[in-house]
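Standup notes
- DV: blocked on the single-chain target, sequence here:
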Amino acid sequence: MTKTTKTRGDSKPGGNHKLENLFISNIAEVYYKAYYNLPDDERKTHINYDLIEAERALVCLGDNKAVVVSTKPSQEYIDDLRQRIGYKNLVVLAPKRPTERLSADIIEESGLLKKIVQIIKDNPGIHLVPYYPTEEFFDLLSLLRQKNLQFDTPETVYRENRFIHHHHNCKIGFRTIWDKALDYNSPIKIPQGFIVDDVEEAITAARWFYYKKKNFIFKYNRGASGVGIVFYNYKDLPQDEKAFKEYLLSRHQERIWYEENFIVEEAIDRDRSFFDGTPSIEFKINGKVQFSYICAQWINAKGGFDGIYLGKELLDSNKLAIHDLIEDGARFGEALKELGYRGIYDIDTVMGKNKQIYAVESNMRRTGGTHVYELGKYLYGPNFLDKVCLTSRESLPIKKNINTYAKLFSLVKPLLFDKKKKYGIILVQPDAVVINQLGYIAIAPDKDSLFTLNENLKTLVSD
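- DV (later): unblocked, structure below
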């Protein structure tokens, strides 16, 4: 189990307003079981990154909130964030001995639990929001309810429906719901693909794609952030059937390929001219299905998510296709709602070179774009895309000598965000400097100045 021993003090709110949200940023808690099927070094890398990534919760849900994270940023960072964004009432808490199971840490650490209980007592009706409602989070909810506290959980399924959430929040679950919600004539398609029982059957499916001269992907059912996504170009594979099998077997030795069914599907050759060819849409279900935003995703070389772009032209471009995408995404949400789901979900898509949009997966949780959208909305109102555009990066590699927040802040200070100018960089997950990475959100009045800002930052911090 990965542990961090650093202890940090508490952050005090800066205003007298009631707190509206209590956010449990339990990212590592969602994925640590899947990571245990990876080699030790890779597992530790992913868990440590998720602990740091959870710090982006500080820019979620606007002002008047308490945030519980595993690795708490420095007080200097928190104070600068308050001043720069305009937060007057932000409380940041963290366990003294964090593990990858944040909800369990809260239960086990009496001092932290006491503070959370007091926050709920002082703010009756507060929204208790997790990154994802894990079994550990449900245990925390049960404990808090036993204390007769008044709080709401607008992004969490009722406990009797948690099976539905877990069962369908995966690659196979997405295909099952899509087939239920939409028909053959729907304008948005899913790639040709097969749910396979094991690696042996996956290889026979791969051979079928090979004969069809189509590139394909192996998708681990519960993969995230590029874990368990393996691309194949049919032209690079052995023609001999025995050699073909041996080659694929050699590349799928990890336990993840032997624990449950997974998917082999066609790899869509994407049209990168349309915002890198990876539009994603996000919705929220709480009584009704509501469209939130559409963004372009930045995908790294390994197929993992690395940030988003939010701009008005995404809705203006290719209007008919985007309208179809939103409409079919809402139909997908109605099927989820019927099963008992509530909370946030997105649909990741690929724009094919034939201009066909393909839906490739859904994430039934907060995403790497939710906090960017919520920040834009907080800073400039619900129609913020009429005023600014935004982009984010999750893990920009930085120079090795930038190994403290103080060094990072000093270096990028000229580019930091100014609300009046509607321009600049907002640092998120600042502790990523210890692993030579940078997470940030960039804001500018238009796309050209935004991308110039982005390049200026890279010049400052990258080799």
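- Follow-up: DSSP finds 15 helices and 17 strands in the chain.
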